[in-house]
């Protein structure tokens, strides 16, 4: 699979001290006193069949207590862009600092004004990393075809807490959300998700010959570790029962 990967320098800076000052909001499951994952986590993923992974994620959140910081999870990836705005796009909120705490897989965002009680916000990230044969997160795997050639695929294993290794998220089982996925792939591959495919678009003009984007229906409300997707050249069959594929 061949996909153009957007190049951008890292914007993150590693630190520990400031995040540790917020541990009470993290260690005892109280994070949702400040923020609640409201409705939807959208991920758009672009990758080639060797190692490169580029994605965007949008997380809709509701503020349940005024706060000037957000802490969520991310593991072994480079965040190249981050934005925060009200869900109606009427107000952009400046993110003054983005700090990493790798030992706890945490990303700390400090904003220049308090997030308002009851307000809905959309938190967006662009990110990239290299797929590894690691059996967790979104990882690279392979099999040997009948002709002896090595064939690659990329798939997921998020349980118990490896969704954070695929995209930035609130990766705690009690913080449930609904999820939508858009996957960019080569036409020789198939993408599968928790839900049926809603549509497929040609991206030849933007990304080169044979590149497709699959958009999938929104999931039910669930924990991050239940999210699953795969890009492969596997043959597959499907059926419909009571109107569901």
From TrEMBL:
Residues 51-226 form the Aminopeptidase N-like N-terminal domain. Its cofactor is Zn(2+). It is a single-pass type II membrane protein. GO terms for molecular function: metalloaminopeptidase activity; peptide binding; zinc ion binding. Signal peptide: none annotated. The keyword Nucleotide-binding does not apply. The keyword Methyltransferase does not apply. Keywords: Aminopeptidase, Glycoprotein, Hydrolase, Membrane, Metal-binding, Metalloprotease, Protease, Signal-anchor, Transmembrane, Transmembrane helix, Zinc. It is found in: Membrane. Belongs to the peptidase M1 family. This is Leucyl-cystinyl aminopeptidase. It comes from Amphibalanus amphitrite (Striped barnacle). The gene is Lnpep_0.
